[in-house]
Amino acid sequence: MLADRLKTLAPSSTLAVQAKAKELRARGVNVISFGAGEPDFDTPARIKDAALQAMRRGQTKYTEVAGVPELRAAVCAKFKRDNDLDYEPADVLVSCGAKHSLFNMAVALLNPGDELLLPSPYWVSYPEQVRLVGGVPVAVPTQEATGFDLDPGRLRAAVTPRTKVVILNSPNNPTGAVFSPDALEAVARLAVERQLWVVSDESYEALTFEGRHVSIASLGRDVKARTLVVNTCSKAYAMTGWRIGYAAGPRGLIRAMTDVQSQVTSNASSVAQWAAVEALGGPQDDVAKMAGEFDRRRRLIVEGLNALPGVHCVMPRGAFYAFANVAGLFGRRVPPRDAGGKESGLAGSTDVAAFLLEHAQVAVVPGVDFGSDAHIRLSYATSADLIREGLARMDAAIRRLA
Ligand code: PMP
Ligand code: GLU
Questions:
Q1: Which residue among 54, 106, 134, 287 is least crowded, i.e. fewest CB within 10 A of its CB?
Q2: Ligand 2: which of 13, 34, 38 to mutate, most ligand atoms within 8 Å of CB?
Q3: Domains along the chain?
């Protein structure tokens, strides 16, 4: 008999869609996947070389739990350079991806019954991690009409005596929203007033195409003292497989998270840490190059999505996702694939995703897993040619709907 907490645990649907597309491809099905939440670029050579050198130097043993001092120093320099934030190495914890940083936070901060405010749509792993430690995720909707900008009024109204944390993710997965400075200022005031912790997941910082990335921790001393900033090498440097994420914040919280990590995983991979020293500290031109390419694909896919009958999509301002509204397809009938097959109807995002996989061989993630059943998420971390081909297939399949 498994633990009760497993009764509500949903496995990561983003990773599941990726796995499903891979499996179909291995069976010879020509699937175009918009599922992957990872850059399709290779890790830059300078970063791989740094890992090889570390291996040759014999840096293959346990390191400090929080990360080698050189990497924590590089993280501090990155925060200064990109966010004008002052941290010392003792304020930094390096973990096995930002996902791990976030779980350390949940273990260190949440008692059973504590509430965490979650602007919705949200990344799939936040509510699951919170529930795993007995916390209560409270979804607080954002509006499509504002490009899914943060809604400070609704967040304020959702605060209860049990509210302990508000989690922010800008640029946002899945909506691509870049939260406005005004909204961030208002949430900073709310957090200070109501003594909430702020967790700011800035994993997609390097992929900000419109507007400006503002770290809420940079808005004042008071809010910085209650904020955990989380970031990762995964997206900016195409390093998803290396598993290096990092967090910076008040020393007491970082120490607690480090203690948790010391009993669970110890340090992140030593070799990957040395690669990350080069990633964060070396020349940053490759980052801008990748971001430029994502920006071109963003326009291509959003234009294509808006040309599909029954679909509309707001222009994302960051990350590499388009969050398309497909409610216009609900109620349409899917013709049977072969004689003797049954007609079925589209009633939600799971149906739409299944229909696209079966009738267009296109993989997308249903929005319901991100808190909105009216949407599907498409990652455009794939080539322009595949984006064009995928859109053409979707168009043809949708036109066959009854
Ligand atoms: N935060 C967000 C919003 C994400 O989309 C992801 C997924 N990659 C992560 C954190 C975790 O990234 P990683 O664990 O690869 O650093
Ligand atoms: N975060 C990415 C996504 O949303 C990668 C998969 C995952 O870790 O969930 O697709």
A1: 134
A2: 38
A3: 4-42+286-398 (3.90.1150.10), 58-282 (3.40.640.10)
